TrEMBL record, chain A:
PROSITE patterns: RASGEF, RASGEF_CAT, RASGEF_NTER, SH3. Keywords: Guanine-nucleotide releasing factor, SH3 domain. Residues 27-39 have a biased composition (Basic residues). One of its GO terms (cellular component) is plasma membrane. Residues 48-59, 637-646, 659-669, 725-737 have a biased composition (Low complexity). Residues 768-888 form the N-terminal Ras-GEF domain. One of its GO terms (molecular function) is guanyl-nucleotide exchange factor activity. Residues 1-75, 287-324, 365-384, 556-670, 711-737, 1195-1220 are annotated as: Disordered. The keyword Nuclease does not apply. It comes from Lophiostoma macrostomum CBS 122681. This is Ras guanine-nucleotide exchange protein Cdc25p. Residues 307-324, 613-636 have a biased composition (Polar residues). Residues 949-1194 form the Ras-GEF domain.
UniProtKB/TrEMBL annotation, chain B:
Pfam families: Ras. GO terms for cellular component: plasma membrane. This is Ras-related protein RSR1. Belongs to the small GTPase superfamily. Ras family. The keyword Cell membrane applies. The keyword Transferase does not apply. GO terms for biological process: regulation of establishment of cell polarity; signal transduction. It comes from Lophiostoma macrostomum CBS 122681. It is found in: Cell membrane. It catalyses: GTP + H2O = GDP + phosphate + H(+). One of its GO terms (molecular function) is GTP binding. InterPro entries: P-loop_NTPase, Rsr1, Small_GTP-bd, Small_GTPase, Small_GTPase_Ras-type.
Amino acid sequence: MTDLSSPQEEVDKHASALVAPLNIQKSPKRSRSKERSHTRQSSSRGAPSIRSQSLSQSQPSPPLTPRTSRDSLPEQQPVQPVFHNYLRAFYHFHPSSTVSSSTDESSITVPINQGDVILVHSVHPNGWADGTLLASGARGWLPTNYCEAYDHPTIRNLLNALTHLWDLVRDGENGDLLVFTKQDYVRGMIAGVRYFLERTQCLTRDSPLVASHVGLRRMRKGLLGDLSALVKTAKKLQEILQANKSAVPVFEQLDELVLKSFKLVTRAVRFLDIWAQDSVALTNELGETSINRPPTPPSDSVDLPVQPQTTSNPNEDDSVATNDNTSIVAQPTAVGTYEELDSATSQPPRNLNRLSVAFSIPSESDSLQSPLLPPQPQGQAKRLSVTHRLSYTGKLQGGRKQNLASERLNAAHDAFLGFIGSFIGLHLQSRSSEELTTFTQQAVLACRQLLAVIEEVWERDSRRSDQLEQARDTMYVRLTDLVQATKDMFSTSDAALGEEVVMPDSGKQLVSAATSCVRSAGDCVAKARFVIERTGDFEFESVGLGLSDTIFEQISRPTQEEVEPTEPAKQVEPTLETDKPLPAPPTTARQPPPPLVISESKPLPQVPLPSPVENQRVSLQPTQSAIVESPTAVSFRSSRSSLPPLNQLPTPHLPQPSPSDYSQSPASATQRFFGKAARADSVNASVADTSSTYRYSIIRGDTCSVISQASTRATTPDHSPAKKQSSQTLESSFGSSSELRSMASEDVAAVEEHLLEKTYAHELIYNKEGQISGGSLPALVEQLTTHEATPDAMFVTAFYLTFRLFTTPVELAQCLIERFDYIGDSQSVGVPVRLRVYNVFKGWLESHWLGQSDSSALGIILTFATGKLRAALPAAGKRLAELTAKVTEVRAGALVPRLVSSLGKTGVSNTHFSPTDSNVPNPIIAKSQMNALKASKDGKAQCSILDFDPLELARQFTIIESRLFCSIQPEELLASEWTKKKTNKAINVRAMSTLSTDLANLVADTILHLEDAKKRAIVIKQWVKISVKCLELHNYDSLMAIICSLNSSMVLRLKRTWELVSAKTKARLEELKTITDVGRNYAVLRQRLQNHVAPCIPFVGIYLTDLTFVDVGNGTTRQLPGETGRESVSVINFDKHMKTAKIIGQLQSFQVPYRLAAIPEMQEWMESQIQRVRSSDQSNVQSYYRRSLLLEPREPPASVRASPSDADMASQHLSAESRTNSKDRFEFLNFSFSSTNTVKDR
Amino acid sequence: MSQREYHIVVLGSGGVGKSCLTAQFVQNVWIESYDPTIEDSYRKHIDVDGRHVILEILDTAGTEQFTAMRELYMKTGQGFLLVFSITSMTSLYELAELREQIRRIKEDDNVPLVLVGNKSDLEEDRAVPRPRAFKISQDWGNVPYYETSARRRANVDEVFTDLCRQIMLKDQRAYPPNGPPRGIRGEGRVPRRERRRRHRRPVCTIL
């Protein structure tokens, strides 16, 4: 079983790898670039060439690599296929010095070990990548040809979550910590782990695989432990942030967070390794014929193009092929090398055949962007600069980022929009053709810049996205149209008038041309973005990474020559190698690094070729044992077995390779690297030191875990004979490590339950503020019933308020019950969630139940309450059943008065009072006034508004109005309910508007029924006083009504009357007018209502208009940001409903009764007056206007319309009116305006 | 030339889709989330006949029942869009009263107006025959008549542009520019010609 190649053989093989020749295929690229340069000459000819020049200056230089055999160095293909966020090392790489320096800058290379997973930040064209090792958290340069892409559907979600987390943390370090105050971001990791375990069929403890495989069981436990630690860290971070402590602990926690996530992912990777190796064997052992092989990796690889050396064992071959393919694709720079190795020469295949299955499981065959491209097209790709990972969050800081393609794209697009905007705006305004020309030129220039960026992106993309090309070509056409339109404009103006006048028609044409230009630009940018996301972000021009321009020039020249068709390919490398100045890393080292010893060469180290497996392959039978016998297992196990004490160490330190290791190891090639492990210690230290300048030092502050991390890493290097229990031993290395032991077992259990949750978290969309802006119903329901935190009050209220707009009560009930079902009944997760589900039902029934619409769901709820809920939570089930019964009884509305909604109500709830409060002001009313009111009620006398104090009048009217306002139900404000004529759900809103109108009419009536201008002036003065008091009482609704009326044409035109109104009153009125100004979208009024303290009666009309426009201006659904290449999904546009709820919440926050004492007699009188005005059929604007005309007829010069006939008509009307009015007055004094609910729509 | 700001008021009974019309006009195509509560929600820069103008649109949507407020709204407006739904005859009749009120408040028979029949996409539910509406628009003093579909964004911009053009014309007549450059007069002619053309245009083009 353990027939592996001898150390000597290993070395030989390795050496042979060094001299592997490489063919560089230059011609296809050359022809392609030439061909491209000839097309589209008309529109953007100049741009690309300039760009390529400037581009080439942008290369940060990775460090020099120690090398011995320079001439044998395989040349690198300048290809740039797909950018991978994660790489996995399949060789060790231990440079003799991690720091190289030429000038003040220095570069750090990180030593990598076989099996290390690296998060890649950027890839330099020469193949060096700036990456962070997950195992240690160390960051630095590493050779990509030692690695291969690590991307597999099983673990992809987890890796994406990690990338996202990393980006968030980076933003967090820049001060954007908002997102960390919630724990939503951890959910991605949790979901990733869940998905991972699901795919590996290890989700539950009882799954056959977990049950039968000790190693997997332990790994799984460890994984859950890590997850629990991560969640804990996130919680701690949240606490620290909430406590508002200084930045230091926050950053420490951020480091911790990243560290924990790295650890988690590292463990997941190991898990996958073991799983890939052993699940096959296991399934065989278990006699499960259904699964012959690990479900994912090999089956994927079957679809791949098979590489030449197909031989005996199908399993083996598949994995080899897989390996090769992946590496080809993943390693742009190494492609040539492997190609040679695998096909052209008789090189032994790498020893990683089985290992590589676990290592570099190829990505899904269905995703076409992934690696599997023939080398040819890749060779055509232009690769000129560093490639970066496209950040998700995109909040970039620092000048370095400005050159990123994504940033450029944004900037160019913005600039273009800006220019085209001013172009559209100004070309018509300024008629001089000269100016117009300038603007056109600017716009076209901006457009070209944008196109240049897009061109660049397109060129970098090895696969030459057709879509992008199409979009770009469309844009060229549009731009041409635009230019043509401008030209046309000049010619017509020249021809027709000989003047510099722009004709409106051609202007219109121009605008439409410009508009379509904008559209196609938007399309173009979107497509380009897509490409960048796939291929990785890259930098455009110089700067960045702290390199001087001269260095750039030196470096860039040769690189650019690569593009030059005339330049022989061979010349490229030498130029590079003779390059004197040493490249710099992204940061500077704290301590002056030791001077770099090695040569002038900068290329990648050549790939070592340790292939002990070759012999193994030959000797082994193609049986399951061969499969189990994977090198990974070997390497992992060996360190374990060779270092038994480590298991017992509470805090393991970085293991030094012991001689016994070497003796056991069959691979001497690895020894060479491993020999440097001792050195790696110091290397690590220095890297950690440097990386703290990123404010990202993992090592800082947590020595213990760093060491355990290091030990994890150290287990990978060496090889030793494989045994069956290999992975189990490996497992024990994880399981026995100190941190796992320290972890409380219940934590693991808790996380395990957490993991088992089915989740729809991926169907939620968050906006920039971290609020949920969209999601599917199950996802929203899930958010409503999270177990770890009380759901956001705003969210809950918005949901209750608006759910009927996007779902039905029945659907909601079913969805909640489903949630109840799928969460299970575990103590830590299931029970809290189920309680929340119950609470959602309870809250719904108690305070948000709408008999009419919701009763359809009652049956479902009752069945649930008496069935599932009672079985799980008897008390809750009973209570819910009771509630359903109550709801049936009280069909009319909610059980609990819903005057006070939780929304925005926190601060004002204490303002409720009983009328006996001492603070209530005494009514200003004299006994005589009281008597007059009583008399008027009995019809014995008449009262006038002049009889009473304006403040008291304002108070009493405010009380009446407040009563109505406070009874407005939120449901009345949804879906433009109040505008619907047939339904009368919005009783109170309509009553409000009616009251408002009535008040305005009352004002007009009181003024216009007086014959004497002097008296009218006095009444006007009284109303102004009342409105001032209304303002003092914050009764804006009444204020609006009164001012409206005083301002209306029928009152305003009474010139004689106004002459008698004092200047003081007029000035006051002017002030009030500015407050009630409707201009600029009620800017003044809105300003006043902002953060207004209740009680207050705002002008309801504003809210009604806002609600209407939120409704029509926002779509009902929005698209889930599609994962690359997938169909996007429509989900509920919850943002719209949040907006609605927010507006309603604002209104509700004012729904607080006033601390005023009511005078029933006065209110009765007022209501009777209102009723009188309302009931008279003259209460329409036209009749008032006629009356106004009659009182003060139009002065002939002022108007042509004031014909005698008009006046006659008016007088006739008036006589009739005055009769009825006087009659009305007496009749309606007895009428009492009893209840607000009786107010009907007219 | 300085930027002019014109106030347009959109009127019509509830449910005719006037808010939709306004939202469609004001909203940029690329805006994802529309917030009507901010000051600029109803402002739009447009170009009409070579002039850059700012339109501030006052849409009373949702407050139709606050009849007393109407005057307040109308006072601010220089031009009015009278919107009805082609699926409702009543909504057209209700406009007559509004028009009267506008004329009264403005004390002017030639207030810039545009009659708009919205929901032209609901042709199968049409209750207002096109000649009928057109007749009314002519009776009102050759007021331009358009049929729009806010949902399909048909004729939306045209309606506002036409109204704006009317306001500008009126503006020019009221305050004739001193020492008008030659171009201005020429420009003045064009819209008028256009306007006449437009009167018939909806009838034949809306289909």
